[in-house]
Design a protein that fits this description.
Layout (H helix, E strand, L loop, with lengths): L2 E10 L8 E6 L7 H11 L4 E5 L8 E6 L4 E2 L3 H13 L9 E6 L2 E8 L5 E5 L4 E3 L4 H10 L9 E3 L4 E2 L18 H11 L4 E6 L7 E7 L4 E4 L3 H13 L9 E6 L7 E7 L6 E5 L1 E11 L1
Parallel strand pairs: 2-3, 4-6, 11-12, 13-15
Antiparallel strand pairs: 1-2, 1-18, 3-4, 4-5, 6-7, 7-8, 8-17, 9-10, 12-13, 13-14, 15-16, 16-17
Helix pairs in contact: 3-4
């Protein structure tokens, strides 16, 4: 007999369906091994699929494992936000609780819930590793993405490094002109042991301050619709520069329009601790049971 496990699919960083970034969540994942989780992630064929498990730490409310179609990740932004939303919706977290702790391979991460019905979920990202030296990698990234580099330094490094590709405040966001050159960017990401690369520029329309794009060729994803970890890495880089770009400690980033999505990420940095949170809304699309042999 097949074993039914609760299953949801939702859009993260969006208040309505078909915007944001899709996420599949297997709720009752206890008993599934790594091989089974990887096969399910290949089957859903989304950028990430997550599996909710009982926590191993008494300090955590739930545990999550995060898989792309090719590998497990220690942390990713939209899967963390979406998994927190599902954990609340599925009753894995006490009703009305607004301060949660997520256990994942990257450690114990604080989660804040705001608004009625978990209208906004904020997850604290693991610390980013940054480099303030200009290296040959900058030029290689520019060639791979066919963009010009602004003078300066800085390259935040996480699963998805980020690059400032243009002059803020001049014309359309420079990231809109990036080209998805698959072979060069994939080779570069594999060489650097990175999932992908994120680019950003100043936004000039709507309610967002920044426009972001993320390319993940090393994981078979030409362009990720909305990427929490890239947005967290960008904020870390801005902080390293002393916020001389003027985005401040809290701003809204837009991502996904180039691939038919329209995601919004709320990004914040604590001045005292340097902790960075990324957050957004979620919209449920599928609710049911996954029938596993």
């Amino acid at each position: 007999m097949p074993t039914p496990r609760r299953f949801m699919q939702l859009d993260v960083f969006a208040s309505r369906l078909f915007d944001g970034n899709p996420l599949a969540v297997v709720i009752d994942a206890d008993g599934l091994d790594t091989t089974a989780m990887q096969r399910i992630a290949q089957w859903t064929n989304l950028s990430e699929t997550t599996f909710l498990l009982p926590p191993t730490s008494s300090a955590a409310d739930y545990r999550v494992r995060i898989f792309t179609p090719r590998q497990e990740l220690p942390f990713a932004g939209h899967p963390s936000v979406g998994s927190a939303w599902v954990a609340i919706e599925a009753g894995l977290v006490a009703a009305g609780k607004t301060a949660l702790v997520q256990e994942c391979a990257a450690g114990l991460l604080p989660v804040q819930v705001a608004g009625s019905g978990a209208a906004l979920i904020r997850v604290q990202a693991p610390p980013a590793r940054t480099s303030t030296r200009r290296t040959p990698l900058h030029a290689a990234l520019a060639r791979a993405l066919r963009i010009g580099l602004a003078p300066g330094e800085g390259l935040p490094r996480r699963q998805r490094p980020a690059l400032d590709p243009g002059q803020p405040g001049r014309g359309p966001p420079p990231c809109a002109a990036c080209s998805r050159t698959w072979p060069p960017s994939r080779a570069l990401c594999l060489q650097q042991r990175a999932v992908g690369v994120g680019v950003f520029g100043r936004e000039h329309a709507g309610g967002a301050a920044m426009a972001v794009r993320a390319f993940c060729p090393a994981d078979g994803i030409p362009e990720d619709p909305v990427t929490g970890s890239a947005n967290a890495a960008i904020m870390a880089w801005l902080g390293e520069r002393g916020d001389r770009d003027g985005y401040g400690l809290r701003y809204r980033a837009s991502q996904g329009r180039e691939v038919g999505r329209d995601g919004i990420v709320e990004v914040a940095r604590d001045l005292a601790s340097g902790a960075i949170t990324i957050g957004g809304a979620c919209a449920i699309g599928v609710r049911g049971d996954l029938q596993l042999p």
